Amino acid sequence: MATKVLKNRMERLRKRKKTLFKRAHELGTLCSVDVAVIIRKDGRYFTYRSINQGSWPPSMKEIQTTYPLIQDILPQDMQVQDESPIFGASYGQIEDDGKEKSDINEEQL
User: Which residue in 78, 36, 94 sits closest to 60, CA to CA?
Assistant: First the structure.
């Protein structure tokens, strides 16, 4: 029984890793950005790099010294809300005073 659960987890990881790397490749290609993905499982690393250079991806020290400062997104930040400060104005429009308003008011629903 435990062996079957372990095999299912490994298969799920394999499929999700493949999908994540595919999406990272699409992001790099469609948006003309450099992308690096690092996955660590049980001491093993799985990586994707959109460019084949020894200096890519940069170290955390190099990233932290860049300007403007990086936005470090953590798992708890990924819980998307209606007005997300992490992902900017993609969920609404910014008014002149800097506040975000929804494209569709609740009254219109």
Answer: 36
